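ingest -> validate -> predict -> emit
validate: passed (alphabet ok, no gaps, 294 aa)
predict: started
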Amino acid sequence: MSTIRETPMPPSNASADANSGVPERRAREPRRGRSMLVRSMHPVALNAVALAVFLLVWHAIAVAVGSPFLPGPWQIAQAFMRLAQHGDTQGTSLLTHAWASLERVLAGFCAGVALGIPLGLLMGLYPGAYGATRSVIEPFRFIPPIAWIPLAIILFSGLTRYAFLIFLSAFFPVFTSTAVGVRRVEPLHRKVARVYGGGKLYVLTHVVIPTVLPDILGGMRVAMGAAWLTIVAAELAGGTNEGLGRMMVNYAELLKISEIVVGMIIIGAIGFALNEILLLVEKRLFRWRWQVSL
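emit:
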């Protein structure tokens, strides 16, 4: 009997291509990591260049004008070092001023967020309630928090006074953004959750709130900016010896422009840091929004 010899079949093109693609993929992985690092460093480098150009232009203008009322970056740096080492004219340290303003802002801001979110959810879920109370709520939104300073000076004292003013400035941006965000929730999503047995609490916690969170964080960023505007105006009005606004007023009476600009820069730096923290939280929670690009 003749035996049949089986000849080994050559590897298919698909398997060969798959095996040959493994080293290529491994080689691409380090390149992909380096490209992501370059992309992440790109905005940092651009901002560093923009800051350097701004300082150079500022220095050139200060040198060209040559006025004591327009100090350059070097004079501002010297004033900052004096304040950091020796404090202000009353011996209060720069850190004490910064912490006093930050504490007041955070107290009022947290109060505004704590009340603005649930009330915004309530008014968004029940438009009839908002329509019935609109004539009461909306006029308060157009009263600037600075207009409440005389009443705050009479009715409150200490931290409560500033927390009340910050609350007024932070409440309405969060309240409005939350209420508007609830109205943009797709009714179909609510109905699907109800069809599968979800109660009102389930729809609220699993459909409405996750959908509204981007709007809430956007309102919180706006509220943070309004809070810093209000605290500086409130401290300028008096009633305290601590705070960046009070420090700026004290040096304004002495015509010390450099120290005033130091206070302005610290306010901007703290506000920028808080805004970046909110942005990081937003990127962490809503990565899908930041991955969309044109």
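The radius of gyration is 29 Å.
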